[in-house]
Write a structure and sequence with these properties.
It is a single chain. The chain is extended and about 50 Å long. The longest helix is centred in the middle third of the chain and has 17 residues, at 57-73. By secondary structure, the protein is an alpha+beta fold. It is built from three helices and four strands, in the order αββααββ. 24% of the residues lie in helices and 29% in strands.
Length: 114
């Protein structure tokens, strides 16, 4: 059953799609949730970052910047936490820090000056 319901495990996956309409200040005006079928394309943060000048990544980045600005103006405490790959193999735990890139921190505390 997991193979049929896991997002991206088959060509077209069942999903719940969330629609959000924002105003110019980034406030949510309307939301919708509906069952859907989606094609999933898995990307690394580096692959997404390389596409920031292309749609839909450009618009998504702009939206996150409006949201981040509003959070900062509201006094949000932004904590920059490193991401790590944690694996358990052959009875041993390995923890490997991942390289930080802009796409991984769109909504976070990093200011990349874009």
């Amino acid at each position: 059953m997991i193979e049929l319901l896991g997002l991206g495990l088959i060509d077209i996956s069942p999903a719940l799609s969330f629609g959000i309409t924002l105003d110019a200040s980034g406030m949510i005006k309307e939301t919708t949730i509906q069952p859907s079928w989606v094609r999933v394309q898995r990307l690394t943060y580096e692959q997404a970052e390389a596409q920031l000048d292309e749609m839909p990544f450009h618009d998504l980045y702009q939206i996150t910047q409006v949201y981040q600005t509003r959070r900062k103006e509201s006094g949000a405490l932004l904590i920059d936490m490193p991401e790590a790959m944690i694996r358990f193999e052959d009875g041993k735990v390995s923890i490997r820090p991942l390289k930080t890139c802009a796409a991984a921190t769109w909504y976070g505390s990093n200011d990349h000056g874009w």
